[in-house]
Design a protein that fits this description.
Layout: H1 31-44, H2 50-53, H3 84-90, H4 95-102, H5 113-138, H6 183-187, H7 191-199, H8 205-223, E1 226-229, H9 231-246, E2 258-262, H10 289-296, E3 300-305, E4 315-316, E5 319-320, E6 322-323, E7 326-330, H11 336-343, E8 350-354, H12 360-366, E9 369-372, E10 392-397, H13 400-410, E11 437-440, H14 446-454, E12 458-461, H15 471-486, H16 488-492, H17 505-512, H18 517-536, E13 542-545, H19 550-559, E14 563-572, E15 584-592, H20 598-609
Parallel strand pairs: 2-3, 2-8, 11-12, 11-13
Antiparallel strand pairs: 1-3, 4-5, 6-7, 8-10, 9-10, 9-14, 13-15, 14-15
Helix pairs in contact: 4-5, 5-18, 8-9, 13-20, 15-17, 15-18, 15-19
């Protein structure tokens, strides 16, 4: 749910959640008020009335007007009274002192001088330019008749209570699937293949659970991808799956299939640490909606997987998660555990989350197929929140077919997440791709374009057209402020000093204290303008393009656009060790579709993967090559 750190950081405009109680957490520095605060004591000592101390002229041009202005004050001797100009000239007020004093009015005067200097610099360098750009975009006309905010409140108590009938996807059945003779081959089978082994009773859920728990424990010391093994729960759920099958009850393709959850997702009786040392011992008695859905589908939870601390990047209280394809580098993105574990064959699939890049970046780095679904498709009840208008849950899998199967199981609306809805998705297994027109950007992987063209898809050059230049700052303002609303008390109690990476959330959330409410709303209005422009220019059914371009990551999340991350190849790592290595850098692309058209992106990804095998490659975590070692 947070921008990762790819090779050479993208141009990040670093700002970041709950729209509720927003007024309690957004702050506007009022220069005239500060002037009044500093000058009043000096002038009051000389007997000046409050209005005079404020420089009131009795008209609209005065700095401040009080009821005291209507009182007939007795004439006073002004001899020796110091003027405003002289006060400021003789006792210049430092910015840090002014900032510290101003924060009293926001009930936020708990920062030390070092943090205040950092906040001052950040506000000047990042906040103010973004505010000005957004005001220029959407605030030039009065009345609010144009560019309305995308933050819409659902006022109806029961108008949204009716759920549309969910139509289950028509899954294909894997044919001629036979149980491999070794666990390694079993570990890299797809969900649909493993499901067929279970359905035909060639393997039990208990046996599968054994296989994946052994792999988790074998490779986790190197990858640092697991927070908690849910071993007792896993064997309990595996037994239930096996017992049901013995009774002739088969729940579908996820029946008895092991999986992992990102550790921001609540599961009763197990820790949900959010990757943070501050919360590493917390346990919730509630079930996340996504966990309930997977449990009802017969899936078996084997582990809570690493999230970067408070869903930011790949650093957590237990270390830093590595990339199975090149274990000298890290996985990036806060869904680090789900991506690395799926890539290494430690789980057949996993559930991660994205606010801004935390599905796309680690999936691309670790070379797995993943889906960032349309915003609102999967309810986020009992999941740690960064931003209600940005957070999404999605699957990491071996193939697009598996992503479709998992999406079908976890999608849906829940009362605990007002933004969730029953998205009327089409069946990706019934899409006629020959009737689609698909664009490709300049940075698209051309092999994907050529393969889809050979399968009858009309491929055309395409460009995303929009005039909004503040895409990155809109996302960061939204994300930082929303996040601060959710972790206000955490910051006030000084827990940011204990955070695992001091250049991440601590810096961004301090700066978020200085985002005025007005400019937060202007950012949302600018977001609405961006959405309209992207929608109006979307003349195709889908498009192909780079999936880790930071501007596009921001745009896709602001618009709520789905994307499938598709592995398209491997290349040599930079500066390989002498003697060679089997470590590789993964190559990926993204297949994007308009909101509510996830099935189109999935259908195109399935078509590409039906004639290529890039998604079936296995990372070299057992054989690093001669003279190769991990540097810690």
């Amino acid at each position: 749910m947070r921008p990762p750190r790819p090779h050479g950081p993208p141009p990040r405009f670093p700002f970041h959640r709950r729209r509720r109680r927003l007024h309690s957490h957004l702050y506007l520095l009022v220069a005239p008020l500060l002037c009044f605060a500093f000058l009043t004591p000096a002038l009051a000592a000389a007997g000046a009335p409050p209005a005079a101390a404020a420089g009131d002229t009795g008209g609209e041009g005065g700095i401040i007007r009080t009821r005291a202005a209507a009182i007939d004050w007795p004439a006073m001797d002004t001899k020796g009274v110091i003027s405003e100009t002289e006060v400021l000239k003789k006792e210049p007020v430092s910015d840090v002192i002014a900032l510290k004093d101003s924060l009293k009015y926001f009930d936020a005067d708990f920062f030390n001088d070092s943090k205040l200097r950092e906040m001052e610099d950040g506000a000047k360098e990042f906040n103010v330019p973004a505010f000005r750009e957004n005001r220029k975009l959407v605030a030039s006309e009065n009345g609010g008749l144009h560019n309305p905010s995308v933050l819409l409140f659902k006022s109806s108590w029961n108008g949204d209570s009716m759920k549309s009938e969910a139509i289950t996807f028509d899954y294909p059945r894997a044919s001629a699937v036979h149980r491999p003779s070794n666990d390694e081959d079993i570990a890299f089978m797809s969900v649909i293949e493993l499901g067929e082994l279970i359905r035909t009773k060639q393997i039990t859920s208990r046996e599968l659970t054994d296989v994946f728990l052994r792999r988790l424990k074998r490779y986790n010391p190197v990858l640092e991808a697991v927070v908690t093994y849910t071993e007792d729960l896993a064997y309990k759920q595996a037994k239930e799956a096996d017992d049901l099958l013995a009774q002739g009850k088969y729940l579908g393709p996820l029946h008895g299939i092991p999986y992992g959850l990102k550790d921001i997702i609540a599961v009763p009786h197990y820790k949900t640490t959010w990757g943070s040392r501050t919360f590493k011992n917390q346990v919730f008695d509630t079930e996340a909606f996504v966990y309930k859905r997977l449990k009802s589908a017969g899936a078996v939870l084997v582990a809570k997987l690493v999230t970067g601390s408070l869903a930011y990047d790949d650093i957590w209280f237990g270390g830093r998660t590595r990339n199975p394809w090149n274990i000298e580098e890290f996985s990036t993105g806060s869904s680090a555990g789900p991506a690395a574990s799926t890539s290494a064959g430690m789980v057949p699939f996993a559930i991660g989350s994205e606010t801004a890049g935390s599905i796309t970046y680690p999936a691309a780095r670790c070379g797995v197929t993943a889906l960032r679904p349309t915003f609102g498709t999967v309810a986020r009840t009992n999941v740690m929140s960064i931003s209600e208008s940005l957070d999404k849950l999605g699957p990491f899998c071996r193939s697009a077919v598996d992503c479709a199967i998992v999406l079908d199981a976890i999608r849906g609306k829940d009362a605990g997440d007002p933004s969730s809805r029953e998205v009327a998705l089409g069946d990706p297994f019934r899409v006629d791709i020959t009737k689609l027109t698909v664009g490709y950007l300049d940075d698209a992987e051309m092999e994907v374009v050529d393969v889809l063209s050979s399968k009858g898809v009309k491929m055309v050059p395409f460009k995303l057209n929009y005039t909004v230049e503040s895409v990155q700052s809109i996302l960061n303002i939204t994300m930082d402020v929303d996040m601060l609303a959710h972790f206000d008390n955490w910051q006030r109690e000084g827990h940011d000093d204990d955070y695992e990476a001091q250049d991440q959330w601590p810096v961004e959330l301090r700066r978020a204290r200085l985002v005025p409410a007005v400019d937060y709303i202007q950012a949302q209005r600018a977001r609405g303008k961006l959405i309209k422009e992207v929608r109006d220019g979307f003349t195709i059914d889908a498009f192909i393009g780079n999936v880790t371009d930071w501007e596009r990551v921001c745009l896709g999340n602001l618009v709520g656009m789905p994307v499938v991350v598709v592995p398209t190849g491997l290349k040599s790592i930079e500066d390989p060790p002498k003697g060679g290595t089997k470590r590789r850098t993964t190559v990926t692309t993204g297949i994007y579709a308009p909101p509510d058209h996830d099935h189109i992106a999935l259908a195109l990804a399935m078509a590409y993967q039906s004639v290529t095998d890039h998604n079936k490659q296995r990372p070299p975590i057992d054989d690093l090559g001669p003279n190769d070692r991990i540097h810690t």
